[in-house]
Amino acid sequence: MGIEIERKYLVHSLGGFVPPPGEAIDQGYLSDGDPTVRVRLRAGRGYLTIKHRDAAPVGNAPITSHEFEYQIPAEDAL
């Protein structure tokens, strides 16, 4: 189990930084409420992720969620 800490920033300029190439990810949601249940196919591997958001943050505190991710057969992810 991990805890995801969500922070958001507004970036006005990358200052010449060129990001590396991304990777293709296919995903779908089985539930987008709480908990959120997501299925992904990335680099030929399947993943099932379950996220449960903690209590609403107070003030400027980041949003945190408990996250469980399990590798599943690629065929099941499809």
Give your account of this protein's structure.
This protein has 78 residues and is mainly β. The protein is built from one helix and five strands. A hairpin with a 2-residue loop joins strand 3 (36-42) and strand 4. The relative contact order is 0.28. The mean pLDDT is 90.
Which helices and strands, and how do they pair?
Layout: E1 2-6, E2 25-32, E3 36-42, E4 45-53, E5 63-72, H1 74-77
Antiparallel strand pairs: 1-5, 2-3, 3-4, 4-5
Q: What labels would you give this structure?
A:
single chain; 78 residues; 5% helix; flat
Brief sketch in words of this structure:
With 78 residues, the chain is mainly β.
Low-confidence residue ranges? none
Number of helical regions: 1
Structural class: mainly beta
N to C succession of SSEs: EEEEEH
Could you tell me the mean pLDDT? 90
Radius of gyration from the alpha-carbon trace, in angstroms: 16 Å
Largest sheet: 5 strands, antiparallel
Shape: flat
Instruction: Give the strand tally.
Output: 5
Distance between the termini: 24 Å
Relative helix content: under 10%
With strands numbered from the N-terminus, the spatial order across the biggest sheet is 1-5-4-3-2
Proportion of residues in β-strands: over 45%
